[in-house]
User: What shape does this take?
Amino acid sequence: MSASRAETGDYGQTTVRPLRRRLYKRDMDTGRLPPLRSLVAFQTVARCGSFTRAAQLLALTQSGVSRQIGQLEDYVGAALFERQPSGVILTPIGEEYA
Assistant: This one.
């Protein structure tokens, strides 16, 4: 008799993120462009070094900018920024992407 989902703690949540990431990577491999809003948010955060300051410049909320960056990171398949208490800095992959 197999264990129930409640006993194993497996509710299917672990498969959502990798599947989503694979779809974006496939888009990247086929030459599809990343979302323009995500690119604008990325460029602004890279220049400002802060999600909050970029949000002010783009007239968005900080969480909106964070979601745009998250979408681009899913598309690329890697973290583009290293989050620090005083702001963010580009990772080596983020530097290449910039």
User: Anything to note?
Assistant: The first strand starts at residue 81 and ends at 84. Strands lie at 81-84, 87-90.
